[in-house]
Each structure stands twice: as structure tokens, then as C-alpha cells.
Amino acid sequence: MKPTKVLMLSLTVFLLLCLDNSVFSQRIASIPVGTFPVGVAVNRLTNRVYVANLVGQPLPPPLIEAPNTVTVIDGKTNQVVDEIVTGLDFQIGLAVDEVRNVIYVAMLDNGVDVLDAKTDKVLTNIPVAGEPTYPAINAFTKSVYVSDQLASSLTLIDEDENNIVATIPLGGGSNVSEPEGVAVDPITNRVYVANFEPAGSVWVIDGRTNTLVATVPVGDSPFSIAVNLLTRRVYAANAGDNTISVIDERSNTVIANVPGGGFHVAVDELRNRIYSCSIGRYGFNLLSIINGKNNGVLETITLAGAYCGGLAVDSFRNRIYVTDDNTDSVIVIRGPRCFLRSTQQ
User: Fold this and answer.
1) Can you tell me the distance from the alpha carbon of 32 to that of 170, in angstroms, rounded to the nearest whole number?
2) pLDDT 10s digits, 146-170
3) Which of 287, 292, 286, 168 is nearest to 226 (CA)?
4) How far is CA 80 from the centre of its chain?
């Protein structure tokens, strides 16, 4: 069996039957991590959670700051098991190749760090120009895509060699458009990039030809993006109007705009649930749970005093991870329960 098929087989071994009244979310832990945690990613195969801390810990003069770290959390115990020391520059987003167990961290001023999750060591740094912000991985094609908010482009990195093989222009140019979140559908080999400003759109890139094939208008200031590869839906979190734009992959059109969105969005493919965190009326962060079948909001959880820096879902264990910049921690939430339904293999 080829290793690149492991994840897809894991997703199709069983089905989960989720009813509209099966919403019983529960906050189960708050885990202290580094300073200003932002990006968070989960390796569902190893049950490890990785958090990119935006800046290093301040130190007394004459030292200015300590190196940044990526915090490693054991998803079973909700305990920090390691801190991977990286560089001195701002870390924003990170992504995990679950099959190869490798992490890619976007360093705003210093390219992309590559981490070996087996040893918790830095393997190399890839000098991506501009301001790399958010990475996404297609494990099937061994491709890493990194948004560059300064140059309005998408950098393509080959996982085997850890070198840059293409720079894909996204339109607008420097200081005109601003790519942020990136998501990949490994089945269709399409890449989706949120254009935060000023257009309010999502770019669609063909991963076979590395060319821009469509621009989809969405809501105001889309920041984050996620794909449900089982339903072929793309979800853009619009920070400007607190909505989630639902895009049909087949037609590249918006089929719904769901209230309750915001800065970050993540998808539970198995339960067809969409999670998004936003800022509420009184400044509290809100975590919205959306039913992917009818695009209705199932539940809104108030995270009082928190500020959502990043969001990730472990669909195998029904866990949601929210980084909280205000308390330098990761909030762990158990998602809505569903019923297991066996299938013929």
C-alpha cells in the first residue's frame, strides 16, 4: 500500500451519522504554550498538535528576544511534550504532512522552516522571499504551497528536495492584494487562496499546471480557508463581515453565505462540520459550529476573554483546538457527538 493512500483510506473506513440535535460541545482543557500562539495544526495519525508561537520570549538586556518555538502537545494527555526551537522571526502559519510526519512553518521575515516531527528538530530553512504567511500541503503530490502577502504570489515547494520549484502570481501585485490562508484539495489537485484585501475573493489554482484558473468573489476580507474533500466544498472565513462563504468546487461559485464566521475556519470531513472563530459584539471570541449539510449554524460557543489566533480540528478524535493570544494557551474543545454507522468495505 502506498503511504500517500493511508490518509484517504482512514477517512473512508467508517461513516458518522450526525443529527441536528447531536450538539453537545464541551471545553475540556486549556494548555499553556509559548508567547502569542498563532498557527495550529494536528497530525491525526500520531495524535500530536503543533503550535507556532508568534514571537520569542523577551529577555533582559542586552539580549532582545529568545528564539521562537513550536510547541508540541500530546493529544491524548493534553500535555506539552516538547518545544522545538526555530528562528528569531515572526512565525505565522504552519502545516503538517501527516504521512511523512514533517512540519512546514511560515516565518514572516525568514522563509519557511522545515521540522522533523519524529525528532522534533529543524531540518532546514527554505529562503522564501517576501513575507510568507500560511502554508498548505498536498501529500499526494508532495507539494507545499505558501502564501506571500507582500508579493501577492504563491510559492510552490517540493517536499522531496525542500526547494522552490515555482512562484505562482496571483494578481494585483505588491501592496494591491494580500493573500492569506491557503487550502488544498488533494483529490482534484486544486489550491485555494484567500485574498484578504481589497478584492474580497478566493483564487483557484490548478496544481497540475500551476496557473490561476478562477477568481471567486466572496464576502468582505476573507482571511482563512478550508476544504472538505469529501463534499467538494470550500469555506472562506470573511473577517470583514463575520460570514462564511461556501464555494462549490465544481462550479467555482458561492452557494451560501453563513453568518457566524470570522478570522479562521476549519473542517471536520467525517462529521461534515465547519468550525469558525470570530469576534462577538462585546469583544469575546465566538466559535461557531456549522452543519455542512444545510449550512445552518448548530451552536455558538462563547470563549470569554480569548482571542483566536488559530484553529484546527482533529476529525478522528472529534477535538477542536483554538489558540488564545490573550492567555498564551491552546483551548481544547470536544466537538458535537455523532453516531457511528458501519459500512461495507
Assistant:
1) 37
2) 999 888 899 999 999 999 999 999 9
3) 292
4) 20
